[in-house]
Amino acid sequence: MRIKKQFIKKNSFSQEEISKKSGIMPKKPHYDIIPKKDNKKEDNMRISIPQNNIKKFKEAFIYILNKVGAKVNVGQTVLYKILYFIDFNYYELYEEQLMGLKYIKNTYGPTPIDFAKLIKQMQKDGDCEEIRTKYFNCEQTKYLPKRTAILAEISAQEIKHIDETLKRYSDKSAKELSEISHKDIPWLIAKNGKVIDYESVFYRTEETSMRIYENK
């Protein structure tokens, strides 16, 4: 249970506080379901600090836009939640980061901190365009791709994960995704306006967890 103890110590959460917020006691990960990696790094060397892999983010985002950007429901807020679930679900499953964006806890769910800056640069580079439209009489900001993604920057495993995440969430409204994110332990235990810790995915309830855990 080293992962959980390190997380509690780092964030000054007690076992009781975590359980009170989640409604369950944390479970022991069943690591056998994750393919073992041939590396010499010890378990405690896993990087939980967001890495902001900008190059990978750009190609993953263009890939996402080509897949679902034209859907009427997919505006900026929906994209925020999709990016969050791609990053945090991937970290829970594989204990490594995909895009590694930093997300903060906002009223309507997780928000990627550097999104505006990254998108502005992508627009300047001619990667995508921003348009304003109406969705159910509400202002909506959409992003449309102006090129295809360079898939060499994204592994087959990452593409599969992105596709599965899009299948699960891309047809949902911003309100539905906000409600789902509000049930997710990483968002629940984070402080308002503060960065959401990737390590907290190991406290998820069965409702939002992507990983099989031992019932011990």
Describe the fold and architecture:
It is built from 8 helices and 6 strands; from the N terminus they run H-H-E-H-H-E-E-H-E-E-H-H-H-E. A two-stranded antiparallel sheet has the order 1-6. Strands 2-3 form a two-stranded antiparallel sheet. A two-stranded antiparallel ribbon has the order 4-5. The model is unreliable at 1-10 and 28-45 (pLDDT under 50). The protein has one domain (2-34, 52-214). The N and C termini lie close together (11 Å). Strand 2 and strand 3 (109-112) form a beta hairpin. By secondary structure, it is α+β, with helices and mostly antiparallel strands. It has helices at 2-11, 15-22, 54-68, 76-94, 115-124, 156-169, 174-181, 185-189; strands at 28-29, 103-106, 109-112, 128-135, 138-145, 213-214. Helix 3 (54-68) crosses helix 6 and helix 4 packs parallel to helix 7 (174-181). The chain is globular and about 50 Å long. It is 41% helix and 13% strand.
